[in-house]
Design goal:
343 residues, Quinone Oxidoreductase, Chain A, domain 1, Rossmann fold, 2 domains, seven-stranded mixed sheet, six-stranded parallel sheet, 16 strands, binds zinc ion
């Protein structure tokens, strides 16, 4: 079968490998769609720290498709069931894993943590999932539409849930970066809270997408007075929550300027920007966090939201052979919403 393999820094090859077969407890998934994510670019350019011995492996950590074959002992699914694959694979036994938060597995620092992230992922015709606990049925959703929800919707959903008590109807939330995650965040906010939503991006195309998905205000963050424009909307109390899906120096600086007292400054983008969080640098009480992905239970909630028709994910679909070109487009900010590869 065809697969997109990561061999090491800047070395991605599309090649034929043997179709895997599931061992005891495992499930073989026929991939319907695999989302391409900015974190793939980080893996390709920087590698996964400490995971050199895991290469080569198949990329793709946003996967959905159909159950193809069951390993011994698996009875919960049957061939043809449509499923989405939960991305961050923990040990399955520690306390965070027991409460479904495998994204915060105690052993994350010492083991490969998911298909496409050190183990074989879904940029291929088939993929092995080690346990049925990592699958969520998607009902009538198209796997091509569902695949990117496993990260592009789950990550913002979990970030928003952390701040839900602050997202009251009199509050303002600022979403920075209207890419794959940001445009999902806007729709999730519209479904789960009544706060005023301000969207910021450097691209007018993406601000148009933000308007389409319910942003109450859009701000071009390249404007020298972007912070002042936001503060004019929020008034003296400033933003209750900032969700930064870029995470570079300028977006973090903008978040710092607009976050209010006791607010949540959430940096979910992997841009690598730094901030000074010492006293006097932030309003009192601000919580800065860098959440990672979401829990299995939250993925079930995301799929429920999608099944209610409340998540309209913008996708561009491509054949697997085009993966390298898609990485290049993504690198240059040329993908609107999410690119999904179809084997
Ligand atoms: Zn991702
Ligand atoms: Zn664990």
């Amino acid at each position: 079968m065809k697969a997109v393999r990561f061999y090491g820094k800047d070395d991605v090859r599309i090649e034929d490998i043997e179709k895997p077969s599931p061992k005891t407890g495992e499930v073989l998934i026929k991939i319907g769609g695999a989302g391409v994510c900015h974190s793939d670019l980080h893996i390709i350019h920087d590698g996964i720290p400490g995971a050199d011995e895991l290469t080569p492996f198949t990329l793709g950590h946003e996967n959905a498709g159909w159950v193809e074959e069951l390993g011994e002992g698996v009875t919960e699914y049957k061939k043809g069931d449509a499923v989405i694959v939960y991305g961050p694979w923990g040990c399955g036994h520690c306390k965070p894993c027991q409460v479904s938060s495998e994204n915060y597995c105690d052993y994350q620092s010492v083991q490969a943590y998911g298909g496409g992230l050190g183990l074989n992922g879904g940029l291929a015709e088939y993929m092995i999932v080690p346990s049925t606990r990592l699958l969520v049925p998607i009902g009538d959703l198209d796997p091509v539409i569902a695949a990117p929800l496993s990260d592009a919707a789950l990550t913002p959903y979990a970030a928003i849930k952390r701040s839900l008590t602050k997202l009251t109807t009199d509050a303002t939330v600022v979403v920075i970066g209207i890419g794959g995650l940001g445009h999902m965040a806007l729709q999730i906010l519209k479904s789960v809270c009544g706060s005023t939503v301000i969207a910021g991006d450097i691209s007018e195309d993406k601000l148009d997408l933000a308007k389409k998905h319910g942003a109450d205000y859009v701000i071009n963050t390249t404007d020298a007075d972007a912070a002042e424009q936001i503060l004019k909307i929020t008034g003296i109390k400033k933003a209750a929550v900032v969700l930064d899906f870029v995470g570079i120096g300028p977006t973090i600086a903008l978040g710092k300027k607009v976050i209010g007292l006791d607010g949540d400054l959430t940096i979910a983008g992997l841009g690598g920007g730094a901030m000074d969080a010492s006293y006097g640098q932030l309003p009192f009480g601000v919580r800065v966090s860098t959440p990672y992905w979401g829990s299995r239970a939250e993925l079930i909630e995301v799929i429920a939201l999608a099944n209610q028709g409340k998540l309209d994910i913008a996708i561009e679909t491509y054949n697997l052979d085009k993966t390298k070109e898609v990485y290049d487009k993504l690198h240059h900010g040329k993908i609107i919403g999410r690119a999904v590869m179809i084997p």
